[in-house]
Design a protein that fits this description.
- By secondary structure, this protein is of the alpha+beta class.
- The chain has two domains: 1-49; 60-193, Immunoglobulin-like (Sandwich), CATH 2.60.40.
- It has one helix and 13 strands; from the N terminus they run αβββββββββββββ.
- Strands 3, 5, 6, 8, 11, 12 and 13 form a seven-stranded antiparallel sheet that branches. The chain has a four-stranded antiparallel sheet with strand order 1-2-7-4, with no helix packed on it.
- Strand 9 and strand 10 (170-171) form a beta hairpin.
Length: 194
């Protein structure tokens, strides 16, 4: 019987020591986490936050009808940019039109130093252009043609082709070499097709 009491005594002693050790480790970990939180908080306090909701407006993007071929039922529209104070490295264009009656045949870049990407949407087209990494010259727009859009016309009628400032999360914008985003003035075309 004394052996059983001795074993119980040893068992409870080991259990108590393990409980104390676990509590001590948890307390040490808690203090370490508290110290780390305080260090992070002091680093965050040193960071200055500048307001990012500043909207920069500069430049202008204009749609022009370049050509209409009545026989082939094709329409050519160009986008011209005016941004003489922005070193543009990328831009996004939201072009809204009736895709059921105007079908995009082609979109071509007028600037060989930019790679062009197009995304068809139910409202029309998103065009994104990014300056090639191998090009190191600065790019300022002064009545510069950016792209040419060729449309196939399905039926006669009055059509609006618009540069749109925002649709959902997408925006028409210019981006400079410092990654500042500018929102240019934009326009729309009204075209009567016979």
């Amino acid at each position: 019987m004394k052996k059983n009491q001795y074993r119980r005594y040893i068992f409870w002693l080991v259990a108590a020591v393990l409980t104390l050790a676990a509590g001590l480790l948890d307390l040490t970990g808690y203090r370490h986490r508290q110290d780390k939180r305080l260090q992070q908080q002091s680093v965050v306090d040193k960071i200055e936050v500048t307001p990012s909701n500043q909207i920069l407006t500069a430049g202008e993007l204009t749609l022009y009808q370049q050509k209409y071929d009545q026989l082939r039922r094709q329409l050519t529209v160009v986008v011209v940019a005016e941004a003489p104070v922005i070193n543009v490295v990328a831009y996004d264009l939201l072009i809204q039109f009736d895709p059921a009656n105007l079908i995009v045949d082609s979109v071509t870049s007028s600037l060989p130093e930019f790679d062009l990407f197009q995304f068809r949407r139910d409202f029309g087209l998103i065009v994104t252009a990014v300056k090639k990494p191998t090009v190191d010259k600065q790019t300022y727009f002064s009545k510069t043609q950016l792209i040419q859009l060729n449309f196939k016309i399905i039926k006669s009628g009055r059509y609006d082709i618009k540069l749109v400032s925002r649709i959902g999360k997408e925006k028409t914008q210019l981006v400079d070499s410092q990654t500042k985003v500018y929102y240019p003035k934009i326009n729309q075309l009204v075209i009567n097709i016979l």
